[in-house]
Write a structure and sequence with these properties.
The chain is an alpha/beta fold. Helices cover about 50% and strands about 5% of the residues. Helix 11 (about 270-290) packs across helix 20 (about 510-515) and helix 14 (about 350-365) runs parallel beside helix 15 (about 380-400). The two termini are about 40 Å apart.
């Protein structure tokens, strides 16, 4: 794809420099802070699961008790490890003891820093070993079975009943789908806990639980053996439990995760501090697990105009790229998102869609870009909708996208039926096969409409990124620079779950992940002072 559009490499470099500085500022802010979700994730990676007598997840019980005692500033891990060393119990037994009241973590004599860290490294080795085995199993299955060609055909199931999702997912795999995404039940992203067990009563989707992940993974492995190709499973680790769900997905061999740095802030009003801290640890887990993340820039175009706001999509992709790199996620796992969302009545709209898709493809050549179908301008006219989806598929294969979320002709009418997916898959297969190498044959006219549009979007993105660098990402979000949505620094859901680290803070899994992913350590950076974010991140007033 290199050289198809004549883009200014200097402008691309300027954009990356600005995005890297924005991400570095965010990372400095994150270094002094953790969240209740991060600490619950640590406990899950230790092997703690299940619920108490009231149905409250045990990771929540432990973190809440530690926080009530005033000890969460050093992390959850030291408290649990200390109890293990004193009692000889497993992490699960410690959790159950705390839940039933037979164990009070605050009253146990302290074993000492070195003993706790030695045991922590042992627990991290065991927990990450499970994730590593899953990654190797995925690689082995792909070697043995093979997989579909890119763009991967990505479809959604969303019945609310995990057992029906499994049936529909297997049907979609037989029809030709490469990725099956299980939409979460409406509102789960706002729950500050992860539901437990198999669920059959979701609304607009199915709850993301570890047991549901296990059921879908088993079903799609069966479909993979039947069809002779590996079928990827996708779910959502956005929301207030972002890192927990990332860990659950890694432990159950999910392959793709929705994992955006800004989506929850903009579209679910989750506090920006909370989300930016949570995305960092969740992406380390996804990186190590070999999971492809999908970002949510396509959603910007549902609240802002796709022509006027195209540069905000590109700017956000640059920021998501740099934040992902700081978590050790390689470009090959960055499914940066964008969408085919321009008004279909716009003259030469297809040319502008091609310009945007080709621009993104050339700037992020190694990323398995996730391309989203038309939704905002779908009217319920199924015939016109099918044509819009066909044009979207044509642009996808022309510009070499990595993941194609297939549009449904019944978009805006109802949750897709099995036959709706079949028609969408057949259309994409027809177009992808007939135009497989079209992109290799096409060159865009120098200075033509497509190239001019691409350069315009890039120039605006550079200007926006340099403005965000100047004022700080948090202030940029407050001003509504992304998706025309304004969010307050101290507003939104989940702010109470942000915790400033204290001297002695310890997260054995982050330390181990940083070492394995080749990232610099943070252990010596935390001095317990916790600089106020308004001084460190938000930049300076004009």
């Amino acid at each position: 794809m290199e050289g198809k559009l004549r883009l200014d490499p200097g402008q691309i470099a300027r954009a990356r420099r600005a995005a890297a500085e924005i991400a570095a500022d965010v990372d400095r802010f994150i270094a002094d802070r953790t969240t209740v979700a991060v600490e619950r994730t640590v406990l899950r990676l230790m092997g703690i699961d299940g619920v108490d007598a009231e149905g409250v997840p045990l990771p929540n019980v432990l973190v809440d008790r530690i926080r009530e005692s005033g000890g969460i500033g050093i992390g959850a891990a030291p408290w649990v490890i200390n109890a293990m060393l004193h009692t000889g119990a497993s992490p699960q037994e410690v959790a159950e003891g705390v839940a039933d009241g037979s164990l009070d973590l605050a009253r146990i004599p302290w074993a000492g820093r070195e003993a706790i860290r030695t045991k922590g490294k042992e627990l991290a080795e065991a927990g990450l070993g499970l994730i590593e085995r899953n990654r190797r199993e995925r690689e082995e299955r792909i070697r043995r079975l093979g997989e579909g060609k890119q763009p991967y055909l990505y479809v959604i199931v969303a019945t609310g009943d995990i057992y029906e999702d499994a049936v529909q997912g297997k049907a979609a795999a037989r029809q030709g789908a490469d990725i099956i995404a299980v939409i979460r039940s409406t509102g789960q992203s706002l729950l500050d806990y992860v539901p437990y067990g198999a669920t059959r009563e979701g609304y607009g989707g199915t709850f993301a639980t570890q047991e549901n992940f296990r059921i879908m993974r088993r079903a799609l492995d069966e479909a993979g053996e039947e069809t002779g190709r590996y079928i990827r499973l996708c779910n959502y680790c956005s929301g207030l439990c972002m890192p927990e769900i990332a860990a659950m997905g890694a432990l159950e061999r999910l392959d793709v995760m929705l994992n955006d740095a800004l989506y929850g802030i903009l579209f679910r009003d989750i506090n920006m501090q909370r989300t930016l801290i949570d995305q960092s640890f969740s992406r380390m887990i996804n990186a190590y697990a070999g999971i492809i993340i999908n970002t949510g820039e396509d959603n910007y175009l549902t609240t802002a105009d796709a022509v006027e706001a195209a540069h905000t999509v590109l700017a956000s992709q640059f920021i998501n790229e740099q934040l992902a790199l700081l978590s050790g996620l390689p470009p090959e796992q960055m499914g940066l998102g964008h969408a085919f969302e321009m008004d279909p009545d716009l003259e030469d709209g297809l040319l502008m869609e091609i310009a945007q898709a080709q621009l993104v493809r050339q700037i992020f050549p190694d990323a398995p870009l996730k391309y989203m179908p038309p939704t905002k301008h779908m009217t319920g006219n199924i015939f016109k909708g099918h044509v819009q989806d066909a044009m979207f598929n044509l642009v996808g294969i022309l510009t070499g996208q990595g993941i194609q979320l297939l549009g449904m002709m019944t978009e805006a009418m109802h949750t897709p039926h099995i036959h709706d997916r079949k028609l969408a898959i057949e259309s994409a297969q027809y177009i992808f096969n007939n135009a497989r190498h079209l992109g290799e044959e096409v060159r865009f006219r120098p200075g033509g409409r497509i190239e001019r549009r691409a350069r315009e979007v890039l120039d605006k993105a550079v200007a926006m990124l340099e403005e965000v660098r100047r004022i700080g990402l948090f202030r940029a979000i407050e001003r509504g620079l992304f998706a025309d949505v304004k969010r307050a620094f101290d507003g939104g859901r989940g702010l109470e779950g942000v915790v400033e680290k204290e001297d002695g803070y310890y997260n054995p899994f982050e330390e181990a992940l940083r070492e394995r992913l080749g990232l610099p350590g943070r252990g010596d950076e935390v001095d317990g002072r916790g600089s106020h974010p308004r001084e460190t991140l938000r930049g300076h007033d004009e």
